[in-house]
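wait is this the right file?? whatever heres the structure
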């Protein structure tokens, strides 16, 4: 698979103060604005080499069939999408943030990139063999995550895969300071996330808590399948 080098990177969770937001739309719009305002800082960390493939991405690709058609949800600077493509799969990188996609396009002109909101995807039922969402669904309020899990199940072919990383913990809210302030972040308990996935029709292959892998802190690494 892709060439990798060690890089554990400080993520953002300096403080989550649970500031009220009035709707999922506000949370997503504020988060998009924060990524736009801090794009240089984001790209300095996530846009540069060396790149280390997340272990979960390796597992996901081992489960995927040859030449599977995969969607990288919230692809950011596009480094995982590039690795997926290099590994021989067909991939679309999708993100809400135009400036991050522009950067990804400059680095890999042949990568297919789409600007869209995870909550409103421009694809039909059964379009993909698998979905990869690294640290992107963390920016949706839980009510929107529940709805997205259901929509993503429909977007995936029967037997298709879903791998995602979400933040483990209790409090959800706006990040007030730290690396990229102004973003909404949700945190999940393992059982709560497992229930949400099963309710949305996903069969869990593995759901585990990991610490300080690609990003600092405790994360939930998910690998699931849509039943045949
Ligand atoms: C923490 S970054 C992770 C980026 C990339 N997956 C990675 O691992 O480096 C979160 C990404 O999710 C994107 N994002 C946040 N909310 C989104 C939404 N509603 N729809 C699409 N992308 C979104 C952001 O623009 C950002 O690129």
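ok assuming it is, sequence goes like this
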């Amino acid at each position: 698979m892709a060439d990798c080098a060690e890089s554990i990177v400080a993520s953002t969770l300096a403080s989550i103060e649970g500031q009220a937001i009035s709707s999922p739309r506000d949370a997503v719009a504020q988060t998009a604005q924060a990524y736009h305002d801090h794009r240089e800082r984001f790209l300095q960390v996530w846009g540069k080499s060396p790149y280390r493939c997340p272990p979960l991405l390796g597992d996901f690709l081992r489960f995927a069939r040859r030449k599977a058609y995969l969607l990288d949800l919230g692809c950011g600077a596009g480094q995982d999408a590039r690795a997926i493509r290099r590994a021989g799969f067909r991939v679309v990188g999708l993100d809400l943030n135009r400036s991050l996609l522009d950067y990804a396009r400059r680095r890999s002109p042949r990568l297919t990139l789409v600007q869209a909101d995870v909550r409103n995807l421009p694809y039909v039922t059964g379009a993909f063999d698998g979905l990869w969402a690294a640290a992107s669904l963390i920016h949706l309020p839980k009510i929107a995550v529940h709805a997205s899990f259901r929509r993503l199940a429909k977007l995936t072919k029967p037997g298709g895969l879903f791998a995602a990383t979400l933040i483990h913990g209790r409090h959800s809210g706006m990040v007030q300071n730290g690396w990229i302030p102004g973003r909404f972040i949700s945190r999940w308990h393992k059982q709560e996330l497992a229930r949400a996935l099963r309710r949305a029709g996903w069969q869990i292959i593995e759901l585990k808590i990991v610490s300080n892998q690609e990003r600092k802190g405790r994360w939930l690494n998910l690998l699931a399948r849509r039943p045949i």
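The domain at 2-225 is CATH 3.40.50.150 (Rossmann fold). so i think its the right one actually
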